[in-house]
Amino acid sequence: MASSTEIRKGRVLDYQGIPHLVLDMIHRTRGRGSGWIQATLRNLRTGSSSTIKFRSNETVEFMHTQVNKLEFSYQDPNGYYFMDLETYDTIEIPIGVVAAIKEFLVEGNMYDILYVNGEAIDVNLPNVVEMEIIEAPEGLRGDTASAATKSAKTESGLVIQVPLFIKMGDRVKINTAERSYAGRV
């Protein structure tokens, strides 16, 4: 058991018997009296987030975590499958865990998989993902009254705004935090 003042962003703690990832943490104090820690936690079983307050004298239990780099192989109605290139083991991640980020998963790309107590439980996206454009209308030359962009669809189904010069078959970089175009490959 550890003090709640040791809660930090990125750590995994056992909250009500379920692993929760700390997304954000603020240590608050008042002029008189004890302070508290306000933490935004994401339930690693359901994917939902909530804000929880801990008194500074409370104890919490941190869970043993490990991050492995695995290659995304395929998906089916049961889940998403990743392969460890060293041992060739296939790991299944449930659909509910990956639902929010499925548009950024591309076969053959490497992703960080978070293991909690030996169980694969979350997928951490890189800051930028490379994808191929599969649908992009022709950009009209006179269409530059405002920002010169058009909608394009990637190989994973994600629709983003791209510059007019991007065409079908181009590979682009996509910022995963903003879900936006970040450049050509």
Characterise the protein shown here.
The protein has three domains: 2-62, SH3 type barrels (Roll), CATH 2.30.30; 65-124, Nucleic acid-binding proteins (OB fold (Dihydrolipoamide Acetyltransferase, E2P)); 128-184, Nucleic acid-binding proteins (OB fold (Dihydrolipoamide Acetyltransferase, E2P)). It is built from one helix and 16 strands. The protein has one helix at 95-98; strands at 2-3, 12-15, 18-28, 36-43, 49-55, 59-62, 65-76, 79-83, 90-94, 110-116, 119-124, 128-135, 149-154, 159-163, 171-175, 180-184. Strands 1-6-2-3-4-5 form a six-stranded antiparallel β-sheet, with no helix packed on it. Strands 9-8-7-10-11 form a five-stranded antiparallel β-sheet. A hairpin with a 4-residue loop joins β13 and β14 (159-163).
The CATH architecture of the largest domain is Roll
Beta-strand segment tally: 16
Distance between the termini: 47 Å
What's the pLDDT, averaged over the residues? 86
Question: What would you call the shape?
Answer: flat
Order of helices and strands: EEEEEEEEEHEEEEEEE
CATH fold descriptor of the largest domain: SH3 type barrels
Question: Low-confidence runs (pLDDT<50, min 5 residues)?
Answer: none
Give the number of domains.
3
What is the makeup of the main sheet? 6 strands, antiparallel
As laid out across the biggest beta sheet, the strand order is 1-6-2-3-4-5
Report strand %. over 45%
What is the number of helical segments per DSSP (H or I, 4+ residues)?
A: 1
Secondary structure class reads: mainly beta
Name of the CATH class of the largest domain? Mainly Beta
Tell me roughly what share of residues is in helical segments: under 10%
Radius of gyration: 21 Å
